[in-house]
Amino acid sequence: MARRADDRHAEAGFHNTLKLENGAGDAGGVNIDSYAISDYTPGDYEAEQGAVGGGAAIQGAHVGQMHQSGAWNQIGIVDGLGGGTKTLVVRYATNEAGVVKSLYERRVCASRELPRDGGGRWRHAGGDPR
Q1: Mean pLDDT in the chain?
Q2: 102 burial type by CB count under 10 A (0-12 exposed, 13-18 middle, 19+ buried)
Q3: Model-level pTM greater than 0.85?
């Protein structure tokens, strides 16, 4: 299990979307379990409850097939609470080194490396906010 934590700007209220995509120049396979906002206490946004496309597939309690070119997973209606800088955490698993995915937040893209977790266990890259 791995988590990748990044500081992102969020708008106040439910006006935010998150999208993880295997875009141009991205590489590697990864399974996505959930997304979390560091100071959002009710719970995570489960990846399998979001939309998928481009070859990504809901596989039980996670989204897989993210190695497909153009594969994506999107969560809509994300609560940005009062707005401002929040820490976004992606919970994932991968056995591959050099996994890079495009992360979109309100249509702003940033490439992010998702380090290998060493055995396919769910990880929280960048630390666990809880």
Answers
A1: 77
A2: middle
A3: no
